[in-house]
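User: For my dataset I need records formatted as: sequence, then structure tokens, nothing else. Please produce one.
Assistant:
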Amino acid sequence: MAKFNELKERYFDKLVQYVPIVAGVHGGHHPEFHEVHGLFKRIHEKVSETGSSKPDLKDEFLKLRAITDNYKIPGDVCETYEAVYKMLEELDKAYFG
């Protein structure tokens, strides 16, 4: 859990900023990203509510894997979209690691 907390501290501010922007820019061509956006909002809420305790994020990460085809980056997206998937994937791995 230490690694997850470390990554959470490093990535959450960026994700809070990037995820809505990516949804706005790419949501038309990648409607699945709206689901990613909603799941990230839930993850962020749960993490905020639990503080340093381990939140139950199993379902959210499993759904993210399904929606994103295990964080496969589409070929027609920007670097920010790619960065979001990479950060979410690292958080996912750290959560279950």
